[in-house]
Specification:
Blueprint: H1 3-9, E1 12-16, H2 23-36, E2 40-43, H3 48-55, E3 61-66, H4 75-87, E4 92-96, H5 99-104, H6 107-123, E5 127-131, H7 139-152, E6 156-158, H8 170-179, E7 185-189, H9 195-203, E8 208-211, H10 214-225
Parallel strand pairs: 1-2, 1-8, 2-3, 3-4, 4-5, 5-6, 6-7, 7-8
Length: about 240
Amino acid sequence: MHAGYTDLAKMIDHALLVPTLTWDELEAGCRLALAYDVASVCIMPHALARCAELLAGSTVRASTTIGFPHGAQTTAAKVAETRQALADGGEELDMVVTISRVVSGHWDHVRSDIRAVTDEVHAAGKKVKVIFENCFLDDAQKIHLCAIASDLGCDWVKTSTGFGSGGATEADVILMRRHAAPQVQVKAAGGIRDIDGLLRMRELGCTRCGSSRTREILDELNRRLGRPAVGLAGGAPGATTGY
């Protein structure tokens, strides 16, 4: 594929997280991700095993969420979710911090919670993204989370679930890129709905963006590059809502 296309397509984690998606829509979303050759499919945990089957042999990774969407589960529950996700073929896991503990300033708990999941994921040779849910946090809390994620060797810090009161902002991406260690990547999620939004996040230092608008984003990219449209058998769905 054209290098410009591949660089940008491999920034996208195609999100299939809306709770009302049917089984047929989930499978079609995986096939869409394959057709557009994105970075990963981030799917609801109950469908991860099927997602991994559909993506097997491709360069599109199977991913899912841990402690989604509010991070309110106990650490033991998050670890159990993590182990199940790894058993189901998950290659990248997006975990939500315990938001209540972050805003309470319970940093020892926050650190141990992130560490428990990260240790499980890394022991399996897979990768973890730590979701802050920035719409609920102040800058000092975001900076503290960047420091913890950096200390623990997390693979990405991530702006949002896409299901909070706000999604990725330029200011948050700039702050996270500035305060996370150089080896910790930044993922933006929530509100990235067109190619210009994706390009802007790349310019600010993101290596991944979560979006349910993959078809719209990459169809427009193909038009700009003068490339043919991606053919999709069976009318795989494009946009959903909420991410």
